[in-house]
Amino acid sequence: MSEEILINITPQETRVAVTYLGAVQELHIERASQRGLVGNVYLGKVSRVLPGMQSAFIDIGLDRAAFLHVGDIWDAREGDSLRPIERLLHEGQNVLVQVIKDPISAKGARLSTQISMAGRFLVYLPQETRIGISQKIEDEAERELLRDRLQSLLPQDEHGGFIIRTMANMAEDCELAADIEYLHTLWDAIKNRANTSEGPCLIFQELDLAHRVLRDFANDETDRILIDSRETYLRMMGFAEDFTRNLVKKINHYAADRPLFDLYGVEDEIEKALGRRVDLKSGGYLIIDQTEALTTVDVNTGGYTSGRTFDETIFKTNLEASQAIARQLMLRNLGGIIIIDFIDMDVAEHKESVLGELTKAMARDRTRITINGFTSLGLIEMTRKRTRESLARQVCEPCPTCQGRGHIKTAQSVCYEILRNLMREARQFNAREFRILASPPVIDLFIDEESQNLAQLSDFIGKPVSLQVETLFTQEQYDIILL
Known about the structure:
- The chain is α+β, with helices and mostly antiparallel strands and 483 residues long.
- 31% of the residues lie in helices and 27% in strands.
- The radius of gyration is 29 Å and the shape is globular.
- The mean pLDDT is 91.
């Protein structure tokens, strides 16, 4: 089997793993308390217009105001330029908006006034008139055929536009017609509710993750969809019979005692995807670091030396790394700017082959990517569209010990910091005695290697200094008590 989709359901969250040739390629998580917003349509209220940034903050009823840039206002263009946002919006104005990017870190949701609704084979753009076609359909004759087919199915009074999705090239005319009818009905419901509602409020909520699997993930390469919840299985079967009949036979209920994600090794892959290091089969490895600004990937040969020459060893490691990098970017859902530092290659043909291998491996990615090739420093620059939080930021939080720095002060550094602060306290307060409360490693140093320094300071300030272990303190935590 080439591709399988595994769906794990609990009352708290839904997890979807997409496997290809037995290896986990993608992981999607949707928690009941933190359901994604992308695709939701809101009747928002303009809370603030920022002419200097040509943007506005829109209240859509969430904790944080959402962000709307003038470039995302569908009727803002005037000739070759954009009209100023202050001429388009004013505070207190109601505006129909759709979320195009979930809140990430401290940033609010990103909005657009250009509404789009996705069906199985088509995306409906009610404010447009054009018919677009997915870039993944490259054959020009096929593109023209699809455009003509769709045009023949549209009603004569059609005022909206459409984008033909990749899966449409295998669809029957009746399936395309059903998609058109469904999207028209959906848009009518959105308009009616928007006209009778007071903002800010939710007008339309996107499908949950389990149902988006049928609409967006499953395709002709999908051999089987396994769901470990009987209730969700029945709901998905009902949805498939109405909208995706070609997938009905592929949907299966998994009822065995062993957890579905354990059986397919998904839990182990999740743990590995949360680490910095990714080991390659050859003995090489990757180091992946995610920051606010960008993600870096460093390729290392490790213990791999089986090539006939040093150049060949590097080349083979980089080729293997290309496949692993593509998979890790999808699995971890890393977006934004990505810098890849392959092992330096002196042979131009090797560079071209590695770049080609990376491009080929990324072709399976559902997210829009741009690969800019090697820079003058020998790095590959690329971008991957960021629409939701990465896996690490979904399931992890900054370490309370190091505050997300990835390292902590040594026990010796903390000892010296305590001695400096002890001197400062002694100059400000005339205490009878000072007591140091600190973690076991710090107290152990004061008793052993740093005992002479502590004794000298006690003599210098003329006050006794006692020690007390606090097992709940992290290595950087301490307190100085005045007695």
